[in-house]
Design goal:
Distance between the termini of chain B: 40 Å
Shape of chain B: globular
Number of helices of chain B: 0
Helix content of chain B: under 10%
Number of strands of chain B: 11
Largest interface: A-B, 26 and 22 residues
Structural class of chain B: mainly beta
Strand content of chain B: over 45%
Oligomer: heterodimer
Radius of gyration of chain B: 13 Å
Structural class of chain A: mainly beta
Radius of gyration of chain A: 13 Å
Strand content of chain A: over 45%
Order of helices and strands of chain A: EEEEEEEEEEE
Largest sheet of chain A: 7 strands, mixed
Chain lengths: ~110, ~110
């Protein structure tokens, strides 16, 4: 199993550009989540999904959209990038009540 | 507000010593608790998962305890090694859907 994979590993955007961060898992997990990690702030939940077709907002959802058309994929869309969205983004997946597995992260720099 | 706190933010100990990392949380009605390790520039690696019905979990030199009544968890590392140097994160599922993280303890093992 590849586990949780994320692409790209690193991205530079200009303010106002849009992009999609990709996340995929091959463990047939029903739960998937997106977090951002900022110095001094810890990891904060952006959006999560409890199954295909079901998504909900986390702690910091503004400026981000998600969809879950398949069990395997959970892309995160930045609609109009802002410097405040410079961060490291982690995708995670799990099955109910069990260990949460994280991807390697995407480092995003918005200029 | 449901919060997770880890104190101290940083800790340095000589190699070979046993050590304890602390985690406190504000709501005793937790679903489960996880300890993670994060190396610089890397993703999160799950160390131990403790279900709400459990008091402790062990994996090799690591032992995690859970006391819901006092809102505390500890991660005990025996016979510390330089390779244990990393940031250790505590995370709590207050419900079944959202994982709340502490800001971590940065551990340095001095050879």
């Amino acid at each position: 199993n590849a586990g949780v994979t994320q692409t790209p590993k690193f991205q530079v955007l200009k303010t106002g550009q849009s992009m999609t961060l990709q996340c995929a898992q091959d463990m047939n997990h029903e739960y998937m989540s997106w977090y951002r990690q900022d110095p001094g702030m810890g990891l904060r939940l952006i959006h999560y999904s409890v199954g295909a077709g079901i998504t909900d907002q986390g702690e910091v959802p503004n400026g981000y959209n998600v969809s879950r058309s398949t069990t395997e994929d959970f892309p995160l869309r930045l609609l109009s990038a802002a410097p405040s969205q410079t961060s490291v983004y982690f995708c995670a997946s799990r099955t109910e009540g069990e260990t949460q597995y994280f991807g390697p992260g995407t480092r995003l720099l918005v200029l | 507000k449901q919060e997770v706190t880890q104190i101290p933010a940083a800790l340095s100990v000589p190699e070979g010593e046993n050590l304890v990392l602390n985690c406190s949380f504000t709501d005793s009605a937790i679903y489960n608790l996880q300890w993670f390790r994060q190396d610089p520039g890397k993703g999160l690696t799950s160390l131990l998962l403790i279900q709400s019905s459990q008091r402790e979990q062990t994996s090799g030199r690591l032992n995690a305890s859970l006391d819901k009544s006092s809102g505390r968890s500890t991660l005990y590392i025996a016979a510390s090694q330089p390779g244990d140097s990393a940031t250790y994160l505590c995370a709590v599922f207050f419900g079944n859907e959202k994982l709340t993280f502490g800001t971590g303890t940065r551990l340095t093992i001095i050879p």
